[in-house]
Design a protein that fits this description.
Layout (H helix, E strand, L loop, with lengths): L5 E6 L2 E6 L21 H13 L16
Antiparallel strand pairs: 1-2
Organism: marine sediment metagenome
Pfam family, one: AAA_23
GO molecular function: ATP hydrolysis activity
Length: 69
């Protein structure tokens, strides 16, 4: 499976977001999401998880964020 576009509408802090902003598909290979603190990088990843697993994914973050001693 390959994700070619991301579209969020009224998801957490995003009123509307489309990636990529043009009509092109996302490029193949590694995708880098960068930005300053509190700019919504993690929210984009949480949106992808929500799309695949639904709201139950937010009940147990330990499955995706393991703790290392």
């Amino acid at each position: 499976m390959q994700i070619t576009k991301l579209m969020f509408k009224n998801f957490m802090g995003y009123k509307q977001l489309s990636l990529p902003k043009s009509n092109d598909d996302l490029p193949e290979g590694l995708i880098l999401i960068s930005g300053q603190n509190s700019y919504g990088k993690s929210t984009i990843l949480e949106g992808v998880l929500f799309a695949f697993f639904g709201p139950k994914i937010f009940l147990d973050y330990t499955a995706f964020y393991p703790c290392f001693p």
